[in-house]
TrEMBL record:
It is found in: Cytoplasm. The lineage of its organism: Bacteria, Pseudomonadati, Bacteroidota, Flavobacteriia, Flavobacteriales. This is Hypoxanthine phosphoribosyltransferase. It comes from Flavobacterium cheonhonense. It comes from the Bacteria. Its EC number is 2.4.2.8.
Amino acid sequence: MIHLHDKSFEPFISSEEIDFAITNMAKQMDDDFFDEVPVFIGVLNGSFMVLSDLMKKYRGMCEVNFVRMASYEGTQSTGDVKQLIGLDQDLEGRTVVIVEDIVDTGNTVEELKAIFKEKKVKHLKIATLFFKPEAYKKEIKIDYVGIRIPNKFIVGYGLDYDGLGRNLPDVYQLAQ
């Protein structure tokens, strides 16, 4: 059990399970991109650990970049995520793989797809370490899924609770 701010979290997914899932995702990508040089784009802040470990296991040539999503409403989370910060690369005609730490409702994935469609990418693929099928409300295909999880609040391995927990090597779920 760990305590972050005012909440308690119990062990949920070990670092070994995470490593196994990322290894499998990298193998799939090796097969899919054997004849091209994709651009992997991590969505900050949560994806930094996933993308780092994924790149250590991916065997092909690739480029890596990071972006951050921002809302038009300042500090209020409105669900109206429209701005992409940090993308200064020309992606026209390129294969792009968006790397997320977690996909739940799919709102961010939907916005990213719209943004990258405007950039005229050749192929857009979505990869996520954690996927909550119960919470997912969109029709967009998630191409690479590391681990399917129930709709529970989790921390660790890049995921945080009010800024804490991102550095944990294992994943914890909110205690009941």
